[in-house]
Amino acid sequence: MQFYLDTADIKDIKKYSSWGIIDGVTTNPSLIAKEKIKLETRIKEIAEIVDGPISCEVISEDSEGMLTEARKFATWHPNIYIKIPMTAEGLKAVKILNEEGINTNVTLIFSLPQAIMAAKAGATLISPFVGRLDDISFDGMQLIEEIVTAFNNYKFDTKVLVASIRHPRHVNEAALIGADIVTLPPNVFDKLIAHPLSDIGIQKFLEDYKASNQT
Ligand code: E4P
Predict the structure, then answer these.
(1) Domains of the chain
(2) Residue 56: pLDDT above 90?
(3) Residue 130 in contact with residue 165, Cβ under 8 Å?
(4) Which of 4, 34, 188, 204 could form a disulfide with 24 if both were Cys (CB 3.0 to 4.6 A apart)?
């Protein structure tokens, strides 16, 4: 299972990549907007820190515009994956980028047919958004289960990147279903590593060690 960071905050990217278990980074226009920095500058900074796929999203709505943006982003670093929204124009762009050998991540996936269409277009990754489905009282993780089952049925190469993760339970479930990748906001990373019994256990070991008066 691969862990990506879902942020464009360089401090967080440095902090969590120092843990040695980060395989990639996802960004989106909202995350970049929060940083108040040029997209190209920030993506190149991230590529210096993380040696793995870095998703960078287009903002054009037509396939020609998406292709122009995508080809420009792809010159910034070999690890750039072009994030393309799930639309008919997006599918057209993905098909062409796949033929050109440029990796893609089809984003804003909310149904199994959307996931299958993206895979058929040749997406390298697809990003189903589980948290946003849960927010409207749908079961986000059920969608992941459906996608993983269908992709196995048809032997699609496209990898399933579980996005819009809100809490560690989403990570448990994604792992048991066999999703390829989870992309985690920093606050979920902190919750993943924390366990009260780990803290209590460390504290007790230290106290016992000190009480034994060893030099
Ligand atoms: C994924 O690539 C997206 O950037 C992200 O997971 C969206 O999460 P949100 O629903 O919390 O905005």
Answers:
(1) 2-212 (3.20.20.70)
(2) yes
(3) yes
(4) 4
Q: Ligand 1 centre and the CA of 202: distance in Å?
A: 34
Q: How confident is the model at residue 22 (pLDDT cuts 50, 70, 90)?
A: very high
CA distance 107 to 120: 15
pLDDT band, residue 213 (cuts 50/70/90): confident
Q: Considering only CA atoms, which residue is closest to atom 7 of ligand 1?
A: 164
Residue 83 annotated in active site: yes
Residue 63 CB less than 6 A away from ligand 1: no
| 186 — pLDDT class (breaks 50, 70, 90) | very high
Averaged pLDDT for residues 150-178? 98
